[in-house]
Queue: 2 jobs
Job 1
Amino acid sequence: MIHIYGPVKSRRLGLSLGISLTPHKICSLDCVYCQLGKTSVLTLNRREYIKINGVLKEFRSWLSNNPVEAKKLKFVTLSGAGEPALNTGIGKLILGIKKIAKVKVAVITNSTLIFDKNLRKDLLQADLIVPSLDAITQDVFVKIDRPVKGIIVKDIVDSLVKLREEFSGKIWLEVMIVKGINDNLKKIKKIKEAADKINPDLIQINSPVRTTAEKNVFCVSKDKLNKVKNIFGKKAQVI
Ligand code: SF4
């Protein structure tokens, strides 16, 4: 399998099969905490980086080679070695997966392309979208997520508000907290205000625990994570 990985059993999703929609590592961000290493192509250009017909063929073949796991499969998760929304075939893939199997589709995205109304339309077929939002001031956004030139964090918030208006599936907003970069509780209160506007179903708070793209990227203490969770309120969970 080239583009399919797993399946992995997760507490939140059950048995989930991953699909990567870009080669390693094409992304619009170069987050300091990325577990995949440094971004090799930093871009906002959308194209069919990986041919969707080939991915669907691989998915069919995985289903027929893994009949026992296929029956238990709860989710197919579009994520992988870069930003999946950069692939212009994402909508075709979601529909194709659903035609082939009775399975839910989750999309994990860094939120930077949600401004694109064609993409938002494509995502309407998904069951769950997990967009990330690590900062709402441009200086902190640039420091933690190191975006390609031209991305304005305020636009990301506005586009997530639009997504919520248009999308009837679940949205789980993910916030990564990195020690010394975006762990200031006053600024976190501002992210919470943005999250209130976006109105996700859940807010998942995370802090880097594995090897990251940069050295000296540290997680915050459990105590701090709980304070952050309390700021975000009852929809929040630490993962
Ligand atoms: S958005 Fe995801 S893949 Fe891209 S750099 Fe950040 S963590 Fe890595």
Job 2
Amino acid sequence: MIDVQELTKQYAGRTAVNNISFKVEPGEIVGFLGPNGAGKSTTMRILSGYMPATSGRVQVAGFDVFQQSIQVRQSVGYMPEMAPLYTDMKVNEYLRFRAELKGLSGHAMRRRVGEVMELTGVTDMRKRLIGNLSKGYRQRVALADALVHKPKLLILDEPTNGLDPVQIRHVRDLLRNLKSKHTVLLSTHILHEVEQTCDRVIMIHQGRLRANNTPQNLTRQLRSTTLLHLEIDGTGEVAEKLTAITGVRKTTEEKILVHPWRKFTLRVEPEHDVRDAVMELAMQQKWRIREMHRQLPTLEDVFVELSMNAGIPSDIPTHVL
Ligand SMILES: Nc1ncnc2c1ncn2[C@@H]1O[C@H](COP(=O)(O)OP(=O)(O)OP(=O)(O)O)[C@@H](O)[C@H]1O
Ligand SMILES: [Mg+2]
């Protein structure tokens, strides 16, 4: 659905996107991540046919974005970072106007506008001037606009920016429901959302591709420790005994809980799961356990690691798999 080869974009001699290549397959939901200024919006504008590249080749839905930009725009629903909404139009007027621009007309057009207003939760606002809407509602109108012509591919630049938590969930469910019919490339800074929604993550930093993998693989391959939180009723040198388990790097005892409960945090090698060994040890020692909770590294940890320029963990592939 998307095929980007050696894409580079320079603004007045400044390189915003530096020789990136990646693919997105039909039906995938791909998170496009990177710190501020990484080049996400620049790449998305090029993919949607709104801005030329400096060099490289980009195909979207089988069309070349440079040679066949009309076909590309018909296949793509693009929601820009700052949506250029007409502030002096009412919501339904605006969406009808946009739908007509995208080739819909008559009854089918009005029905589709009604549908996307429902999907994005702006039906109650349909008679309001866009200029008087809150930021979150403007975002929803921009999303409705991106969806109105039922594009094969949705390119959404921070679609949940400015939305309240309930609405963020609503957009997440919406994207999941679209999955069967649409391919989605979305940028966001809400990594928790990406973990829950996206099949794959493409991460860029300073215009370069830094990671391209499933959220699960990225977090699994991160060279950091897993934490295991325990609450134990046991006396004596509990921490020392726990640290002796193979795979445990370090055990720290946290603040004292209500007697007799003691709280420990184990730092565990990423490839080890020591929970069974902890249970066996507890039985031997006649400790009681009332809590055992494993905390895996999150996508946020991966993001921070890659963005800190600390170098890529060597087992994270940096190119298309
Ligand atoms: N129209 C422009 N003219 C000159 N430089 C630009 C222009 N647009 C973006 N840039 C620069 O290109 C780089 C990439 O910007 P871009 O907006 O693509 O980043 P981004 O990843 O979308 O960041 P954010 O998370 O803040 O939205 C930045 O250094 C930015 O200053
Ligand atoms: Mg941006």
